[in-house]
Amino acid sequence: MWLEAAIGTAAGLGAYGVFVEAYRLGMTELEFGFSRLPPEFDGFTILHLSDLHLNKKNPLQKFCIGKLERKILNFISGREYDLIAVTGDAEVRGEEAFAATRDLLSAASSRHGVFFVPGNGEYQCYDVDRLLREMETWGVNILRNSSRVIERDGARISLVGVDDPFTHHDDLEAAMQGVSPGDFKLLLSHSPSIARQAISAGIDLML
After folding, report:
1. Rounded to 5 degrees, what are φ and ψ at 155?
2. DSSP code, position 133
3. Amino acid 11: pLDDT
4. Percentage of residues in the chain having pLDDT higher than 70
5. Count of CB atoms situated within 10 Å of the CB of 91
6. Residue 98 has what pLDDT?
7. How many angstroms separate the CA atoms of 94 and 81, rounded?
8. Taking Cα atoms as reference points, which of 49, 45, 107 lies closest to residue 82?
9. What's CA 34's distance to the chain center, in Å?
10. What is the largest CA-CA distance in the chain?
11. 1.10.1660, 1.20.120, 3.60.21, 1.10.10: which CATH number matches 2-206?
12. φ, ψ of residue 78 in degrees (nearest 5)
């Protein structure tokens, strides 16, 4: 299983943290091996995007975020993945940010779709439900304490997604309802704070 992770973190103290460090995009390519992963999923590729914070409040932020968008597009345009996972804090506010997010999520091709779990940044938006409905019109699959089965060549894994743990909207027990105990389980969460719960629930990989 191959995983590419593009992580832009907009948290920081002072001007450096907000306007410099936040836009130093990192792309890491990782390969994982699991004894429980069905052999049909050998070579399965995941693009993991998180903490993009596409919130354009003022001209300087618009400039910085524009640079971030171009960097991400350069990384992912024209490439095809098996699955795209976006783990929260797109923090979309305003029509420009909506357009930027739509363009980013449609730039990379995915055989099994784009899946999104909310982060705390989504709950700082003026209307998180409207944002998620809008994302669904772009073809994004929203996981809020729910799961999906991903099938490949007759084999299957379970993709599980929790709502934001920071704002206490997560419910891993609800998300695991209907998940087959024998499935390989991939969990999407904005925060790693539920790692102990994930281990207890039999999660094989958490992004």
Report:
1. -100, 170
2. H
3. 41
4. 78
5. 21
6. 73
7. 29
8. 45
9. 21
10. 52
11. 3.60.21
12. 80, 0
